[in-house]
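Page 37, continued from 36.
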């Protein structure tokens, strides 16, 4: 078996193979869009308004390729993403800006930890620290200079808080609120809009309170009750779900080019 960038027993693979992490996708997208320059780039250089799920799907494929791929697959995925980002630029922003790359990367790292600990199990402090340190490997492949990363997990938490503070650059504007509606209530062929209500409640509950308020997401008794139900029920269900259904890929399996995903899709 060709080795990958991450060992099969690494905390990065343990966390990212859990299919339930998909529930954190909405949180990560809304956090990314809360940065006005990210929202501008996404809006002006993609079909996000008509197909918001495509961005999430591409992010998942990229992550799976780098985390679970052999080295050839991981580097090919990173090159494809970097080439696509190279074409995204406009007044006051460019996708390859290291500070913007760091914010997008940070939302994925933070959302993975929050979602895993909410719906699977709490991680030991050592595992949380290792997950953050290992995330730097992926981030560097995507153009983030090593010296730009916070040194430790505590520094990372401080970075996240500063970015979302009153003095930070992350603030939900009108464009972000418009795009958020596409994330929370996407137009799906086989599902009515109301079918997304549980996902909307979960996303609202996982979001930092300050961003939830800025987006104006409903967070009354009904939404809180739905969120609590999911937080109680899902971990119990996951605990008894066979690995062949619960995780992908199965332990010991490295993804290869063209297997179960397309770098260009």
């Amino acid at each position: 078996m060709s080795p990958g960038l991450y060992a099969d027993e690494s905390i990065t693979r343990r966390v990212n193979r859990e299919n339930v992490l998909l529930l954190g996708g909405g949180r990560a997208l809304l956090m990314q869009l809360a940065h006005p320059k990210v929202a501008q780039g996404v809006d002006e250089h993609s079909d996000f308004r008509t197909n918001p799920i495509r961005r999430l799907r591409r992010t998942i494929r990229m992550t799976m390729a780098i985390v679970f791929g052999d080295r050839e697959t991981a580097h090919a995925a990173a090159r494809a993403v970097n080439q696509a980002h190279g074409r995204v630029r406009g007044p006051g922003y460019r996708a390859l800006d290291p500070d913007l790359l760091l914010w997008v990367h940070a939302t994925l790292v933070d959302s993975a930890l929050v979602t895993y600990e909410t719906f699977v199990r709490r991680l030991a402090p050592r595992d949380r620290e290792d997950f953050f340190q290992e995330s730097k490997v992926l981030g560097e492949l995507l153009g983030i200079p090593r010296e730009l990363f916070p040194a430790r997990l505590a520094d990372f938490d401080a970075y996240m808080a500063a970015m979302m503070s009153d003095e930070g650059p992350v603030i939900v504007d009108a464009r972000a609120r418009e795009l958020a509606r596409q994330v929370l209530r996407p137009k799906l062929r086989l599902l009515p809009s109301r079918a997304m209500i549980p996902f909307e409640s979960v996303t609202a509950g996982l979001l930092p309170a300050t961003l939830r308020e800025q987006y104006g997401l409903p967070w009354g008794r009904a939404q809180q009750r739905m969120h609590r139900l999911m937080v109680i029920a899902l971990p119990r269900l996951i605990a008894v779900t066979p690995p062949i259904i619960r995780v992908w890929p199965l332990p010991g399996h490295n993804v290869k080019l063209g297997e179960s995903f397309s770098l260009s899709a």
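DSSP finds 13 helices and two strands in the chain. Flag for discussion at group meeting. The first strand starts at residue 89 and ends at 90.
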